[in-house]
Amino acid sequence: MNTLVLTAHPDLSTSTANRKWFEALSDIEGIVTRNLTSVAGAEMHFTPSVEQALLEQADRIVMQFPFYWYSSPPVLKAWIDQVLLFGFAYGQGGDKLQGKELILAITTGGPAESFQAGSFNRFSMNEFLTPFEQTASMVGMNYLPPFVLHSAMSRDKTKLEASIAELISHVTKPRIEFHNKELIKAF
């Protein structure tokens, strides 16, 4: 299986969890990693044909990012807007992503219990991630359970190190193993 990891962090060099995840995933055969901030620069400009070619070569796409204001950092939104175009991802002739798989790999600053109804953030992670699930549906991708590391800013080194192996397992797991699993793999 060919996997494309799109890492969307404003400054990966200052990250703890996302940087370690990016580095670990970069060392795995069959996985291509892209630091979208480095690729796009300050202007957040992508070359659609380059990005689309990478998507066409992948069976599974992983969007890796810190959860910012209940969504992704702006660079991932810019990538989506500039790459998932009519005629490529949807609309007439837009079937290039049909059947491919999408996994989200996310870090949050808050604890898991703060992402549920009646709690601090008022909604569950599933609810917050609905736009990504709908985007996958719109372009014909199979939305697989996201991987979420809560309280990533806690600096708990044991939890962070354990999350690396868990993330690799999650990202490389055959699709059949996701059947009847909880929607979010929270770590």
| Secondary structure: number of strands | 7
The domain tally reads 1
Low-confidence stretches: none
Strand content: 15-25%
Discrete helix count: 7
Q: Could you estimate the helical fraction of the residues in percent?
A: 25-40%
H/E element sequence: EHEHHEHEHHEEHE
CATH H-tier superfamily: Flavodoxin domain
CATH class value: Alpha Beta
Please name the CATH architecture. Answer: 3-Layer(aba) Sandwich
Mean pLDDT: 92
How does the overall form come out from the CA principal axes? globular
**Could you say what the CATH topology is called?**
Rossmann fold
Determine the N-to-C terminus distance: 24 Å
Q: Please state the CA-atom Rg, rounded to the nearest Å.
A: 16 Å
Structural class: alpha/beta
Largest sheet: 7 strands, parallel
